[in-house]
């Protein structure tokens, strides 16, 4: 049969008539007019942060069904879908928002906007037809309302928040309570996708999580990373029969184990990284035939890597780093032909590197850092892996790597190479043909002699803009300092034997964030330009032979956090522009020839924690300049070995807020410096010896005013510095008595008041200093009885020498009234709880060790092993 167009029209006529009749009366708009004005009012209640925005096309008088992001029902004209993701919308989403009148909505997507300050209001529960709700990265925070459980038709729910929030516990995030969670999971029985990353789920327990097994037939994606889940994670969820994606990473307190049998789930993406999952990686993992990505790094897994893992031929990302896995790398590893990333960092894997690893054609990232792998490794074998971009073999002291002397191979795509601590003794020649090197770490090796010409050429003329990190520190390099590439951000060549000047060509590297030339034999002046680099946060030139002035032109708004110029021959006054370094945390100018008065103009630096002016030619009186809270965060104040005079700087001491509050929460123990490539270190005098602290604990608080010409009495306010660990006022001309308030320095570990003109009795209150390990009161004019008990039982004669009027233990001179010692000063075990053990440890193991152990004892009660050890040592 042959039907022409006319015939077709006649056939369809009844249908056209039906369509016309069902249209709304207004011919200009198909859209439901109530929905249309609701959308316009919604638009008008918001700002557009910047353009483009989907709402630009929303105009009164046009058909809203044609607007960007709007979907209507074909028949009724009701708005059923609203996708305003990435629309640059800004403002508050109030409960009276007209968006909540769009009761026919099946899809609502407000992701990636700027609704900061808005909370998730209960009106969302009115949109009972919703099947898809996405409020991720929208800035909406606060309690998830219980009404969300009215959304029984939900297929997907995405409430993910920003990653940043983890680092700032005060930043508002979304929060779900068990009541709401239980109702939601019980009512939304068709839920397929649930994304709650960064939502606070800390109140959701194991039984509530188990409800997810009710969704076993529907759930295909579950993502609960960084939600503060803790306790046991129900193993059943790892076995859900239709779930390909399960992401639980960054829940440090979430425990769990992998199913040991019957693990036949269709998982493709499994991420448990940075959780407390533990136990073995069971053989049953070999059943997860669909697995593409397995992220188990930084958990507590132990035992062997099961060989069944290498049956998973779809695997492309495998990260088992930072666990306690032992044994060899299975050599059937080449069965994983799709593998792109293989990270086995920091496991106790031993034996040799299997040759099969070089038969992974698609490998682009490989880390075997910090293992116990041993044997010889022919580096040219890596050239078989054509796409290799990232290679980390660092910190493998048992491995010996052979680099060919004749280079006939290249790794054309290599961008990041870490060969730190690999026993290397020359610059690997295979680097020469590399074009796109981004990061190179050859630190902690035995590379001797001057830097080869070809390497310097590459730095200047080929890696000049791409390279961001060069680390050559801790080698034995000699000759001139290499000139870094222009675009570099991290340049570290410390702890070598480099000589000559810092070349002015360094001034081209103005993107530097960290410059570490410490511990070399560099001479000449510091280039002035370094003070003007806008991103430079750590400048470490300590322990060289630099002379002349400190750069005088530190720019306003600079990024300096650490400036370490100690151990040089710098002179002249301090540049006043140092006060522009408002982010400064560490300023170490010790051991130079700087001649100036005390830089009180630094007292307004809010972040300054460490100020060391030790061993210079500073002079004059130290007094407060006038800031209301001078040096508010200072914790280490060292002005020893100068020519300061006048009375002790009580006006400052009384304001050292950083030393007043005791922060001995062990989980809060932190080191200074948050940069990956730079850790703050510091030389301090403890127990009369110079010691380098490789990292500075944020609880480390000391004052050292020794070897000056301070006079007058000890200010009582020192007693308020409750977190002070060390106080050295020796070699001054201080008079008067020790205030009783010194007994409040409960954290004090060393106290040196020697070589002054102090007199009177040693206050009994000092017996309260439970952590005191070193006491030096020698060469004063103290008199009377030396207190007895606790720490005082551990000090020797040296602590008191040159005080002819002192008597009692440990001095041979006994006191008449020795027997009448008042009872409160004898040692009460029950009273202090941890006292004598810390005493013994501090005494037996040396100061710093004692201090750290002392902390452990304090924090964890009385560990049995330690108690036994100490009792053994003492008996
Ligand atoms: C749209 O335009 C009509 C007619 O001009 C007006 O009555 C109505 O208030 C407008 N609606 C909005 C939301 O601006
Ligand atoms: C509405 O129309 C579109 C095409 O214009 C079609 O793809 C869709 O399936 C229709 N929806 C309904 C519910 O009829
Ligand atoms: C909606 O509520 C907010 C906050 O309560 C208020 O400031 C605003 O005026 C209200 N808007 C309307 C249209 O009522
Ligand atoms: C479950 O959903 C239905 C439909 O929206 C609703 O009427 C009911 O109140 C919900 N139950 C709970 C406990 O929220
Ligand atoms: C594993 O599955 C088999 C067969 O379905 C069953 O008999 C066995 O009890 C299961 N084992 C465990 C530990 O669940
Ligand atoms: C892994 O594959 C081998 C054969 O290649 C097979 O014998 C073994 O049972 C498999 N293991 C698992 C756990 O699937
Ligand atoms: C590797 O480590 C395992 C477990 O610690 C040990 O039993 C084995 O002897 C080690 N092998 C080698 C070659 O060191
Ligand atoms: C920087 O490197 C490019 C090639 O990567 C080269 O063309 C350019 O001349 C180099 N610049 C300098 C200053 O050497
Ligand atoms: C450092 O260089 C000076 C000469 O500039 C030299 O006298 C001194 O011995 C060198 N020091 C070291 C440790 O190499
Ligand atoms: C210790 O610090 C942790 C985390 O900062 C905090 O949760 C805990 O309450 C603190 N404990 C004490 C005793 O202050």
Automatic annotation (TrEMBL):
Origin: domain of life: Eukaryota
Keywords: Cell membrane, Glycoprotein, Leucine-rich repeat, Membrane, Receptor, Repeat, Signal, Transmembrane, Transmembrane helix
One of the Pfam families matching this protein, by short name: LRR_1
Subcellular location: Cell membrane
Extent of the signal sequence: 1-29
Membrane topology category: Single-pass type I membrane protein
GO cellular component, one term: plasma membrane
Entry-linked InterPro entries: Leu-rich_rpt (IPR001611), Leu-rich_rpt_typical-subtyp (IPR003591), LRR_dom_sf (IPR032675), LRR_N_plant-typ (IPR013210), RLP23-like (IPR046956)
Domain Leucine-rich repeat-containing N-terminal plant-type: 35-73
Membrane-traversing stretches: 834-858
Similarity annotation: Belongs to the RLP family.
Protein name: Receptor-like protein 9DC3
Species per Swiss-Prot/TrEMBL record: Glycine soja (Wild soybean)
